[in-house]
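Usage

Read records sequentially. Each one opens with the input sequence:
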Amino acid sequence: MDLGEFNQLSSDDARASLRPCLDVDRWIDGVVAARPFSSVEAALEAARTSAAPLTDDEINQAMSHHPRIGEKAKGSSAEAAHSSREQAGLGALDGSVQDRLAAGNAAYEERFDRVFLIRAAGRDPEEILAELERRMTNTDTAELAEVGEQLIQIATLRLEGILA
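and closes with the structure output:
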């Protein structure tokens, strides 16, 4: 779909097209209410600002749709398809990188009680591993804020893909 088609969708259809980007009602409502957009960049700006910052509950709800980094998304949902495309840039991970990601994911989950979430698009495995290690030193509050920012970055990229 293009921007013109998105602008013309009914509110319910627009909401349905946005939900796989970020399953947060407040964000979806904000983007839908901001239509019609004059440009894709205006739509992306609305995506970046409509829910910032996300609440703890919104983050927890949205996180339920994200697989571990380095793992293939399960199922055939729109969220799984988005995730597979986003992580495709990582390529085939060699054994040592896969092992380091698995160990890092396990340590992160032990520390923060959630999967490690990062915008994978445009990042290589070494950059993701470095970010994982850096974020392990975050306080719980700082990490929750980073997770919220990553969710918004992912949502914006997904919306851009929908409107392309």
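Summary fields computed downstream for this record:
- The chain has nine helices and no strands.
- The first helix runs from residue 3 to 8.
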